Amino acid sequence: MQRVLLIAVGIVTATALVAGAQEVEKLEPVVVTATKLETPAAQLGSSVTVVTEEELKTYHYATLDEAVRAVPGLEIRRSGSLGKTTSLTIRGANANQVQVLLDGVRVKSPTTGQAEISDISPELIERIEVIRGPQSTLYGADAIGGVVNIITKKGKGPFSATVHQEAGNYDTLNSRTWFSGSWQLLDYAFSASHLESNGQFQNDGFWQNALNLRLGLTLPRDSSVAFTLRYNRTDTDLPTKFVTTPLSIDPVIDTNNRQESETLVTALQARTRPLSWWETELRLGRYTNTQIFVDRPDPGFDCFFPPCEFPSRLTVERREVEWLNHVHLGRWSTSSVGLEYRDEMGDNQGGTPFHAESDTKSVFFQQQLRFFDRLFTSAGFRVEDNSVFGTSTTERGSLAYLVKSWGTKLRGGAGSGFRAPTFNDLFFPGFSDRTLKPEESFSYDVGVDQQLWGNRVRLGLTYFQNEFTNLISIVSIATAPFVKGVNAGKARSAGIEFTSEVDLLDTLVASLNYTYTDSEILATRHPIPREPAHRWNFGLTWEPLRRLSLFTQVHVVTQQWEPNVVYNSGHTRVDLGGSYRLVNRYAFLQALDLTARVQNALNEGYAEVRGFPALGINALVGLKASF
After folding, report:
1. Residue 237 β-bridge partners
2. Would you say 447 and 515 are in contact if contact means Cβ atoms under 8 Å apart?
3. pLDDT the model gives residue 157
4. Element containing residue 3 per DSSP (H, E)
């Protein structure tokens, strides 16, 4: 562990001393999520990370959670082997307090309040934008910790297609194909995939089929229409039996517990700019998910609290419409006004049936100002009215200042946020309470980004602080079911995020990210559950030959407090892999690549969630043909 860190710091330090002054051209990312308008990242006061399409290609991620694992301030938690339930947190804000979007459409369940990351396939993704810090002003409820927006790839140029087949241990098979292109006014992109694995225990299997589609039309007067669709069907065996609290490190196997999930996300977006000073956008979105859960009685385990078979069928749906208008005054001012309406439904059939519905109306305003091409400010507010828990108002402001001659950017922001009670909080039979209020927060961050030696060294340092109130907690009561949800909690988190990227050579790039989080639940004086105090991410990509690309990624996480008076141990995970071009431009074949990715190469024994052991060495080797 210490040796890995010393090597990483040594690389960064040595490079700063020997890197030449020749300017390195880096395309500046354009970010949509931070302002709901395409904005260069340099003009944003928010803390932003963009996972690019090039990174997705380089690292051959089989699942989406691996693609965002190295983002500073963001923590991924997978409950066991491939395909098991996976959530993400940001800066101490739990999974319920982070908004996850697919092409701008919310994909969090109205019942659990969380987005199931394992249900989102990594194909046909152009980029992933991660905005850290409160974003409730633009995105309403559940954006206390930040927003993760997954943006689908747009087809460009002549028709092209790719087939990628991988196989590995644990009986893992990953089959993917996609094609894209454009013709006159039409652009198109499509992908299909199948991923399966038998896992490491009895009843630990998983398979997923996914389809992704994007169709677009480019119209006169700077106008366009786009339709996106993402569908997946996932079957997951659940091997862990809940027989102790807390769960033991070595799980007791449940031989027949399983879950099926089917998700459909669609979005229709139309935008136009009829006048130079006015542009408008209309977005329609729909998210549906059906989840079937079956846990039959196991041999050898007595039933003390009937019913002991828990079949359930949970169906949720969200429909939303948003109308945006941006008014530009020259290059120095943009005013944005948005109206949004969404309705949500949850229906649970089984041992604990319930039905719930709600609708939400919102209006927000945002003002962006740009002075002398170096000072950029943004401020706004949102009023959101929910038919169940009432009205919430949030505000946010940010600032960025560029010192171009020094390659320096100073930035900061502050804002309030809220997390709406879920349908489970409000309506689940037994422990729900319809009088629950939203959780609330106030957060701020300040930071500096620095470029050195002709942009060969890129550094960033951020300090953040969050205060959470009205947290929804479970307390014990004297009558069945002996627990109840209440607004009783307060918590805080504060820390730093350090990022660095260094071009050691034109073909060799190193990166080192570090996140420190000091968190506390005020009532118990314990850290926020499952939030590590320290986390490091180290990466190295190298192209020693024209046809050969190699990479190494190291993820280091310290111990985390579990809710049941016990710690989950930390771990160091080493991943490595690469690709080699076997054939380059032969007949209709554009390229044939040999790909490899090995996760947990040192066979570290660990669990991201206590009681759900992660996989040991997990290797995938494949062939990728491009046409």
Report:
1. 258
2. no
3. 94
4. helix 2-18
Q: In the chain, what are the domain boundaries?
A: 2-626
In DSSP terms, 351 is beta-bridged to none
Which neighbouring-strand residues pair with 266? 229, 286
Q: Report pLDDT for 429.
A: 79
Residues 504, 417: Cα–Cα separation, whole Å: 41
Report the pLDDT value the prediction gives residue 139, as an integer from 0 to 100: 95
Can you tell me which residue has the tokens 């409730």? 136
Instruction: Look at the block and give the residue holding tokens 């102790």.
Output: 244
Peptide linkage before 246 cis (omega within 30 of 0): yes
Cα distance between residue 285 and residue 266, in whole Å: 6
pLDDT at 367: 97
Task: Assess contact for 223 and 210: CB atoms under 8 A.
Answer: no
Q: Concatenated DSSP letters for 475-543?
A: EE-SSTT-EEEEEEEEEEEEEEEEEEEEEEETTEEEEEEEEEEEEEETTTTBPPTT--SEEEEEEEEEE
- Supply 189's token pair: 């992109």
* Residue 181 contacts residue 156 (beta carbons within 8 Å): yes
CA distance 591 to 25: 27
| Tokens matching residue 563 | 């809710």
- CATH number, domain 2-626, options 2.40.128.20, 2.40.170.20, 2.130.10.10, 2.60.40.1880: 2.40.170.20
Which has the closest alpha carbon to 103: 268, 264, 261?
268
Q: Which residues contact 365 (CB under 8 A, 6 or more apart)?
A: 335, 336, 337, 338, 380, 381, 382
CA dihedral 483, 487, 490, 494 (to 10 degrees): 100
- E-assigned strands of 565-617? 566-568, 571-586, 589-599
Residue pLDDT, tens place only, 413-429: 999 999 999 998 888 87
CB 568 within 8 A of CB 610: yes
pLDDT at 16: 38
Q: Which residue numbers in the chain have pLDDT < 70?
A: 1-27, 243-245, 298-310, 476-483
Q: Burial, 18: exposed, middle or buried (Cβ in 10 Å; 0-12, 13-18, 19+)?
A: exposed
From CA 28, how far away is CA 48, in angstroms rounded?
A: 12
> What are the two backbone dihedrals, phi and then psi, of residue 431, each rounded to the nearest 5 degrees?
-105, 5
DSSP 316-329: EEEEEEEEEEEEEE
What is d(CA 151, CA 157) in angstroms, rounded to the nearest whole number?
Answer: 19
Summarised one tens digit per residue, pLDDT across range 94-148 is 999 999 999 999 999 999 999 999 999 999 999 999 999 999 999 999 999 999 9
Name the token pair of 196.
């399966």
Residue labelled with tokens 């949509």: 32
CB atoms within 10 A of CB 44: 24
Structure tokens at 460: 């960033």
Bond preceding residue 307 cis, omega within 30 of 0: yes
pTM above 0.85?
yes
Quick one: tokens of 31? Answer: 């970010």
Place of tokens 């627990």: 483
Residue 424, helix vs strand vs coil: helix
**Local structure of 137: helix, strand or coil:** helix
Task: Give how far the C-alpha of residue 257 lies from the chain's centroid of Cα atoms, to the nearest Å.
Answer: 27
State residue 568's pLDDT score: 92
Asked if the bond preceding 481 is cis, omega within 30° of 0, the reply is yes
Token couple for 446: 């300040």
How many other C-beta atoms lie within 10 A of the C-beta of residue 256? 14
Residue-level pLDDT at 24:
46
- Residue 393 pairs in a beta bridge with 383
